[in-house]
Amino acid sequence: MVTLVYDVVREEEKALIKTAERLGVVLKTVKIGEVLDVEGWEPDVYLIRTLSHNKGIVAAAVVEGNGGLAVNSSSAIAVSWNKAVTLARLRACGLPVPRTKVLFGEAEVEVGERAIVKTASGSWGRKVALVTAPEEVRLLMRSAENEVFLLQEMIGTGEDIRVFVIGERAVAAMRRIPPRGDWRSNAARGGRTEPQQIDGELEDLAVKAARSVGAFYAGVDILIGDRLYVNEVNGIPEFKALMKTTGVDVAKHLIEALVELRKT
Question: Which residues contact 162 (CB under 8 A, 6 or more apart)?
Answer without folding.
Answer: 173, 174, 176, 219, 220, 221, 222, 242
